[in-house]
Design goal:
single chain; mainly alpha; 5 helices; globular
């Protein structure tokens, strides 16, 4: 469980670093086709990073919904990692594919499934 949580938290940190780099490039005046499109992309990077941090925290706490959220995040990483690997960016591709594949395998491990079975929330209304 800790390994999956660390993989998701590391991906969130990587996205946050990418957002910081992207914001810096935007601030120093790097050429972009659309300024507001670049701001939107920066916002998406920040929101997705925050979402992944939340998934990591609640995955560590054992909430049930986090397994699906972590799986979706890993599938997104795979869709970026395979083209990166096949286009010649071997280190970047492997840096995305190996942790994502590890997390996917661990998400379906019996111990992770039994740990992440907490429903959470407050008491039922009825």
């Amino acid at each position: 469980m800790i390994a999956v949580t660390l993989v998701v938290a590391a991906e969130a940190t990587a996205l946050l670093l990418a957002a910081c780099w992207y914001g810096y490039q935007l601030a120093v005046g790097s050429p972009v086709l659309s300024f507001w499109g670049a701001v939107f992309t920066l916002g998406l990077l920040l929101v997705f990073s925050a979402w992944l941090y939340a998934v990591a925290v609640y995955l560590y706490r054992g909430y049930r919904w986090t397994r699906a959220a972590a799986l979706v995040a890993q599938l997104f990483v795979l869709t970026i990692g395979f083209p990166a690997l096949s286009s010649g960016l071997v280190l970047a591709g492997l840096a995305m594919l190996l942790p994502a594949a590890t997390a996917i395998v661990l998400l379906f491990h019996n111990r992770v499934i039994s740990y992440a079975s907490r429903a959470g929330g407050s008491t039922p209304a009825l």
